Structure formats: C-alpha cells, structure tokens
C-alpha cells in the first residue's frame, strides 16, 4: 500500500467511525481500488482529554504516542486525529512522529468562507480553555463567539450524551446553544468537537446558518495530501481495468 493514512481514533469510537464514512463519501472514486488506503486505531482506553486538562485526570499522552507509533509501524505515512481536544498534544506528537501529520484546527479554519469574520465555536470545555482555536483564529482576523457559561455546560453535557448513545438528549441540549450563537451574530459555526457533527447531522438547514464540520475538514485535507502524490492518480482510460 502506498501513501497510507493512519487514523489515530477511539476518542470516541462514534467519531472515528464517522471519519471513516467521510473518507468514503468525500473521495471521488468509481471503484474499491480508487479509495484511500487507511489504517485505523480505534482503541478507546485513551484517558479523557478534558478531565486531564481541567481536572487533573490521567494524561492521554503515552497512549497517543504509543498508538501513533503503532500506526507508523503498520505503514501509515500520514496521521490524522479525529479529536479536537487531543490536538493540545499535536505539536508534541508531531515532534516524535516519523509520518506527516495534519492538524484538524488548521484544516477547519481554512474552510471559513471569505468575508465571514464572526465565527461561532462549539467545542469541549478543554478545547475552549486551552485556546486551541482562539489563537489561530485571531491570527486569521476572526472573531470567535463562544457559548456563555451556562450554555457551555449544556454543550458539554450534549457531547457526553452522544458518547453514551443518547442522541435525542444530545440534540435537546445542543440545539438551543446553536440558536444562541446565531442570535449573537455568528455567521458560521465551527463544530469543533468530532461528536457535534453527529448530533447536528440532518438538521443543518433548520438553523439557516452554515456549519463547518471539523471531521469533514480534516478528511478533505487528508484526501488532498493523498492526491498530491503523482502515483495516486488513475488514468481514466485505465480506470475500468484497474477497478476490475
């Protein structure tokens, strides 16, 4: 396999599965052989990132490093992480990685439409508290609109509700907070936790606001990385034979 992408997932498993689906949906392919070669780590024993950063919980670092190298040893040449909060450790992981790595933060912010400068952000407590998006957004001249304290508590509860499989409860908790961000002038909303696209899916049109799905943004960036290699291009005249 050439130019294989490794998915360092498990945070949580539903978000990892969502990324796999998006690799299939977003790659222009007419048969199996034209899809992206992927190696997936979805080992869910990685300690809670928010609990570590805000409550002194166990660190996920050694788990992240171990599974990163496991993916590299299996042949991954590029690593993506479908968890926004885990990007707190992105630079440290990049420093010990042999494979290339693509940041979900950079991929997501690159998809803010031109002219939209007031951006809503739905994310975990830890992603907000550590300023992962804020620092990069300011450098791009963007103004971020975050939920107020009580609303942010509802966002976090919604994320954990989805993790435990209660999507209906997650929607009841999250949707009013989407409305609040829009009422405060958000022109576009970043779904900056990879569980949030799963909560919102199928309801985007109800809000009359554009959403940026951080998982989809990262997948598109990874597909561009893959397609940048000359030997990944399929001659259309040979496609039928290749796919046979």
From TrEMBL:
Gene3D superfamilies with a match to the protein in the record: 3.40.50.1860
Keywords tagged on the record: Isomerase
Name of the molecule in the record: Aspartate racemase
Presence of keyword Nucleus: no
Domain of life: Bacteria
Molecular function terms, GO-annotated: amino-acid racemase activity
Protein family membership: Belongs to the aspartate/glutamate racemases family.
InterPro entries assigned: Asp/Glu/hydantoin_racemase, Asp/Glu_race, Asp/Glu_racemase_AS_1, Asp/Glu_racemase_AS_2, Asp_race
Pfam families linked: Asp_Glu_race (PF01177)
């Amino acid at each position: 396999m050439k130019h294989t992408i490794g998915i360092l997932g498990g945070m949580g498993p539903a978000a990892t599965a969502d990324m796999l689906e998006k690799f299939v949906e977003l790659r222009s392919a007419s048969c199996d052989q034209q899809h992206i070669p992927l190696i997936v780590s979805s080992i869910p024993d990685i300690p809670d990132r928010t609990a570590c950063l805000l409550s002194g919980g166990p660190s996920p670092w050694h788990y992240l490093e171990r599974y990163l190298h496991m993916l590299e040893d299996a042949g991954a040449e590029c690593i993506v992480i479908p968890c926004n909060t885990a990007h707190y450790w992105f630079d440290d992981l990049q420093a010990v990685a042999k494979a290339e790595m693509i940041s979900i933060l950079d991929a997501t912010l690159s998809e803010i439409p031109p002219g939209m400068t007031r951006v809503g952000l739905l994310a975990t407590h830890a992603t907000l508290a550590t300023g992962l998006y804020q620092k990069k957004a300011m450098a791009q001249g963007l103004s971020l609109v975050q939920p107020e304290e009580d609303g942010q508590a509802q966002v976090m509860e919604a994320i954990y509700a989805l993790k435990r499989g209660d999507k209906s409860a997650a929607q009841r908790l999250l949707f009013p907070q989407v409305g609040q961000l829009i009422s405060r002038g958000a022109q576009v909303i970043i779904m900056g936790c990879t569980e949030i696209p799963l909560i919102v899916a199928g309801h985007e049109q109800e809000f009359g606001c554009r959403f940026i799905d951080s998982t989809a943004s990262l997948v598109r960036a990874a597909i561009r990385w893959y397609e940048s290699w000359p030997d990944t291009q399929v001659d259309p005249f040979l496609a039928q034979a290749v796919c046979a």
